[in-house]
Amino acid sequence: MFKTVILAVMAFNLVYDLTMRLLSVRQKKKPLPENVRDIYEEKEYARWRGYSAEKSRAGLVSTLADFVLGLLLFGTNVLSAVYYALPGGEYAKSVLLMLLYAAFLTLWSIPYEYYVTMRIEGKYGFNKTGRKTFVTDTITNFLVNSVVNLALMCFAMFMFEKMGAKFFLVLYAFIAVFMLAVNMLSMTFMRLFNKFTPLPDGSLRDRLVKMFRDAGYELSDIRVMDASRRTTKVNAFCTGLGKFKKIALYDNLVDNYTEEEIAAVFAHELAHFKHRDTAKMTAYNLFTMAALTAMIAAFALIPQISMDYGFADVNFAFAIAALTGVLLTPVMTVLQIPAAFFGRRYEYRADRMAAELGYGDAMVTVLKKLTRDNFADLNPHPVIVALEHNHPTVSARIKNIMD
């Protein structure tokens, strides 16, 4: 029974993904909004179409391949067969199964990640990631994800043994504390992949610090991320919570945009800072983590789920694999719809604040340059935006600023 449920969820995930891809293809045939037609020249827009089509084809192949792999992993009892072939007791077998599962998925994903990063992104001039950096990033991602999942699994196993059905309350507290730590110290974790250096003293730093002081805030830490080591794309973001909150700028932004344009971006980030948008989204994410905890609890309280896959009793390694590989996707898709809605509202508000501070024209210029530099979609399908995008379309943002 439960195996059928998991396979049905896999089928739903596939249909959803293919539907979103079909909507995207159809949307590309529609005319662009008037206020964004000047972003790409005709030749450049044709180049964007080629870039988008290549990424879409690669994504489609990856989706179908992942579905076939999912059928192997969750349509059969292969995971339990591997589990019982491993040495050691329950903890040792579970740890080894989780590591083998994660290692296999990492190896499985490498061809797609390499092709998109090194071939497609490289072909269109965005990728600056060397093979050494690609390998280092892959290994680091594997280690970080493995440590997190193993810690979650072992803690869940231990607390279930000690507390029985009530273990999920402590488990949720554990997940919530970990998540808050990651959010507060997000830039610390990001240093695993990137270098962050202070914005040099000068007129730009003075202007940005003054902007925050005029709004009643002290801003002592403005960091520049060495994004150019991997990509030519541009971004800026507000990260962290409380006194750990920081604003970071891609070095591509600092090096290639005017002081007025960077100030406009900072005025936008000031709005996120002022309205505590990061904290609000973190609070919502804590709510979504309750869904993850409830699903882990369901595996623990319904041993038949694991037993349908050949395990003798509850198996938390299988539970984490099934959750992260299959079940969490539709749940998070639904739960992220409200998050995306509020995210778009926060972006509108931040853009309006930039305009109120006198950076309206500069913000419009920045949005167009960011869109062009990031080779972004000028006209995504409204359904996709409503379900998945936490930023409004560039056309909607420009209209919001100019109205």
Describe the protein.
The chain is mostly helical. Helices cover 73% and strands 4% of the residues. The chain has 15 helices and four strands. It has helices at residues 2-27, 42-74, 78-85, 90-123, 131-163, 167-184, 186-190, 203-214, 251-256, 259-274, 277-301, 304-307, 316-373, 382-388, 394-402, and strands at 196-198, 222-225, 236-239, 246-250. The model has no long low-confidence stretch (mean pLDDT 86).
Features:
single chain; 403 residues; mainly alpha; Zincin-like; 2 domains; four-stranded mixed β-sheet; 4 strands; globular
Blueprint (SSEs and pairs):
Layout lengths: L1 H26 L14 H33 L3 H8 L4 H34 L7 H33 L3 H18 L1 H5 L5 E3 L4 H12 L7 E4 L10 E4 L6 E5 H6 L2 H16 L2 H25 L2 H4 L8 H58 L8 H7 L5 H9 L1
Parallel strand pairs: 2-4
Antiparallel strand pairs: 1-2, 3-4
Short précis:
By secondary structure, this protein is mainly alpha-helical.
Low-confidence stretches: none
Give the helix level as a range of percent: over 70%
How far apart, in Å, are the first and last alpha carbons? 55 Å
Indicate the overall shape: globular
> How many domains?
2
Main beta-sheet annotation: 4 strands, mixed
- Quaternary state reads single chain
The value of Rg in angstroms is: 23 Å
Q: Structural class per helix/strand content?
A: mainly alpha
Q: Care to count the β-strands? A: 4
Number of helices: 15
Average pLDDT level: 86
Question: Order of strands across the biggest sheet?
Answer: 1-2-4-3
